[in-house]
Amino acid sequence: MAVKTKRFSLDKKKYINIAFKQQWEAQKIWLLLPLGLLLLNAVLGVTGVYPNYWVYILVILATGIYIGFWYAQFMGVTQLGQYKQLFDKYMYEIDSRQILVKVNAKEGGIMQWDQIKSAKKDKDGSYLLHITRGQFLHFPADVFNSEHDVRLFERILKQKNLIPTEEKK
């Protein structure tokens, strides 16, 4: 049995938000570095060992540039022609062997399940299949043809150990 989705495309703003959010989750530990530098500078300034203000400005500026860099990277993906296919309309046929990405009834490509690193079900009922940094498959809840397709898709994800299974009590 295969899950067949409606033909849909990924919105560019949605792509930027999801990709930036994934990057933020992966890199949030690095937020400790500027916080540590600010704290160290505050301690050195209060004790009188090395009073200055330029470190505050430099750390905040560097953090802003770093965040802006990643935002610009994902924004650039939406503008470049070589990434145009990310935002084209596709239909998907999903079964336990593969994900078939179809441009039309005769053309398409195959994606193997081992390419999918993780999956997540959002609060709004959409599914996000993570491939690599900035690459993912996003299935909004309204692209499935029936509730049965949603349950089948979720069962396939559980079989592939991409989302946790609920234990019965």
Q: What would your notes on this structure say?
A:
- The protein is of the alpha+beta class.
- It has 2 domains: 3-9 and 89-159, Roll (PH-domain like); 20-81.
- It has helices spanning 12-27, 32-47, 54-79, 147-159; strands spanning 3-4, 91-94, 98-102, 108-112, 118-121, 127-132, 135-139.
- The two termini are 29 Å apart.
Protein traits:
169 residues, PH-domain like, 2 domains, four-stranded antiparallel β-sheet, three-stranded antiparallel β-sheet, 4 helices
Topology:
Elements: E1 3-4, H1 12-27, H2 32-47, H3 54-79, E2 91-94, E3 98-102, E4 108-112, E5 118-121, E6 127-132, E7 135-139, H4 147-159
Antiparallel strand pairs: 1-2, 2-3, 3-4, 5-6, 6-7
Helix pairs in contact: 1-3, 2-3
Give unreliable regions as ranges: none
CATH fold descriptor of the largest domain: PH-domain like
Shape estimate: elongated
Secondary-structure element string: EHHHEEEEEEH
How far apart are the first and last residues' alpha carbons, in Å?
29 Å
Q: Roughly what percent helix? A: 40-55%
Beta-strand share of residues = 15-25%
Enumerate how many helices there are, as a single number: 4
Q: How is the main sheet built?
A: 4 strands, antiparallel
Give the overall pLDDT as a whole number.
Answer: 91
What is the CATH domain class of the largest domain?
Answer: Mainly Beta
CATH-level-2 architecture of the largest domain: Roll
How many β-strand stretches? 7
Overall structural class, as computed from helix and strand content, comes to alpha+beta
- The figure for the number of domains is 2
Question: What is the alpha-carbon Rg in Å?
Answer: 22 Å
Q: For the largest beta sheet, what order do the strands appear in spatially?
A: 1-2-3-4
